[in-house]
Amino acid sequence: MGGDATNGTPGIFGLRLLSQPRVQRAALATILVVFAVVRTAQFLTWSTQVQWGYDFSAYWQAGRHVAEGLPIYAQFQLDGPYSPQEPQGLYLYPPFLAVAIAPFAALFADYRVANWVWAGFGALIVGLSVVNLAGRDRVVASRDIVLLVVAVFVFAPVVGELVMGNIHLVILGLLAGAWMAAERRTRHGETAAGVLIGVAALIKIFPGLIILWFLLTGRTRAAAVAIVTVVVLALATLPIVGLGPWLEYPVVLLNLGPPVDTTDVLAPTAWLSTVMPSLVARVMVTVAGLTVVVWATRYRSEAVSYAIAVGVSILIAPALYQHYLAVLVLPLLLAMRFAPPLGWVVVAYLLMSGGEQAALGDVVWIVNRLLPTLGALLVVGGLLWFGRRRAPEASANVTP
Known about the structure:
- It is built from 18 helices and no strands.
- It has one domain.
- With 400 residues, the protein is mostly helical.
């Protein structure tokens, strides 16, 4: 790398080497390998502690209750207000997920053992989603896809999801698949996108916001298919669980109160609830989020507005923890391609990569709460500011 005095090429030494793409790639690969080693060690350590499968235990228990004909929801969830931070195994989702996971839960007598399989399934979904999206939307060059996959797997929220066993990696896969289907602008693509979003919305409510994005971007077929999918899948559960759990679920939602301990809660609603009534905070955050989505679909490209809709769907949820931010892998990937420069994406990624740091004592909230919240907000804000503008109106006709 020292240059050739005979042909006049100047020598490149020291920090100036970082201006060379090959050196930059080698440096990034080295950093990612170090992080991969650290994350692997953390993952293996947490797999022996209480965190392992903590969230998955709720799905496993609900699935076993379905198989055994027992109630899905606890009685106290129906009797009055309760906190989402109640004892482990508290099920907060529609009956569909409990029915869907029942056959899997019946195979394992211990949810901690089952979580190994669940984590492997989640890892497979993440890997396939990143590779397919990166290749389809040319997020990075083909030779850099491996580095991108490693960067996603060392992302703290993804590691947290694998350890806790929550459902957000499945939702990430559904949202990524929906985007790749919807961007084709074909009838088959819209149908597939609608089915995927319908399934996601029936697992957790927040992906239902994408139905609004479908409507705002003229994808009425996708919106209709999503709604029909929700209805059909809900009806398909009736012979198994009956109508009772579906009538109970709205009560479960209405009785769900704000988190009692906000140490790890990132939701903007939770932050605002410290200075105003919780209901007012929820309404303000929801209205602001919907306004942002409507504006983005009008003034930003479809890829950018979809990424923003995904980000907003997470941020308007009343309960938001760091590992939930794994869903933001999708907006980050789209931002790399459609909202340059890369610098702000890296900053958002790093802000969301904090975690529990006991050595920080009373100021630990800055790392495990404030910085991830700012990172999540930066994802939406960066897409709004740097995102590619909407092209002049083109034909909205959908091809067969």
